[in-house]
Amino acid sequence: GENVEQHPSTLSVQEGDSAVIKCTYSDSASNYFPWYKQELGKRPQLIIDIRSNVGEKKDQRIAVTLNKTAKHFSLHITETQPEDSAVYFCAASTNFGNEKLTFGTGTRLTIIP
Amino acid sequence: NAGVTQTPKFQVLKTGQSMTLQCAQDMNHEYMSWYRQDPGMGLRLIHYSVGAGITDQGEVPNGYNVSRSTTEDFPLRLLSAAPSQTSVYFCASSRRPVGVGEQYFGPGTRLTVT
């Protein structure tokens, strides 16, 4: 089955700097890659996603890039703010056959004021 | 819309006891799933369902049963609780197939097995 690895497990950045979180996946058939944000004690919520026919997607300060050849994708947060502090999870799935969403182990992002 | 709801929010069980975690959604989503979240382990899929009457195993199904008699409800049963099942459990739902739309998570159930 699919295996998703996520790095780093913890990340601290100064407010205003950029943060990058990277994930790799094993199943070349995977074609959907969402990112979820989970604040302390809350449920995970989708912040951005990308499909395999697109190399990059941007939504205000958040962007995701996908390299299908290398089987890795990354989350980029620019101009970080204190409210960006949370745990971020990447995930991968296919939308045919095996409908499972496999998550990475998470990155705890801390924004230092 | 209430979205995805879960009950209870907290539960303490003794080893060997059984219980059912409830999950319901009012968005007419075909796809529902159960995850457990443990420190450093991310979200691991326990069971999932692609529609009423259809269920399948995820990554960590042992010790858990599910059923899907209606589109709205997807209960998770712990057959004989063990300390290793201490975790936070999340139910989620989405349209099909996974990837067409966002997966919506419930608020979670924090389970402690002593």
Question: In words, what does this structure look like?
Answer:
- The complex is a heterodimer of chains A (113) and B (114).
- Chain A is mainly beta and 113 residues long.
- In chain A, the strands form two sheets. In chain A, strands 2, 4, 5, 9, 10 and 11 form a six-stranded mixed beta sheet that branches. A five-stranded antiparallel beta sheet of chain A has the order 1-3-8-7-6, with no helix packed on it.
- Chain B has no helices and eleven strands.
- Chain B has 114 residues and is mainly β.
- The N and C termini of chain B lie far apart (36 Å).
- In chain B, strand 5 and strand 6 form a beta hairpin.
- Chains A and B meet through strand 5 and strand 10 of A and strand 4 and strand 5 of B.
What is the percent of helical residues of chain B? under 10%
Helix and strand run of chain A:
EEEEEEEEEEE
**Coarse structural class of chain B:** mainly beta
Quick one: how many beta strands of chain B?
11
Subunit arrangement of the protein: heterodimer
- What is the typical, i.e. mean, pLDDT of chain A? 93
pLDDT averaged residue by residue of chain B: 94
Query: Which structural class should the secondary elements of chain A be placed in?
Result: mainly beta
- Count of DSSP helices of chain A? 0
Radius of gyration of chain B: 13 Å
Main sheet properties of chain A: 6 strands, mixed
Shape of chain A from CA axes?
globular
Q: Any low-confidence stretches of chain A, pLDDT <50, length ≥5? A: none
Tell me the major beta sheet of chain B: 7 strands, mixed
The first-to-last residue Cα distance of chain A is 41 Å
Q: Give helix and strand order of chain B, one letter per element, not per position.
A: EEEEEEEEEEE
- Overall 3D form of chain B: globular
Query: From the alpha-carbon coordinates, what is the Rg of chain A to the nearest angstrom?
Result: 14 Å
List unreliable stretches of 5+ residues of chain B: none
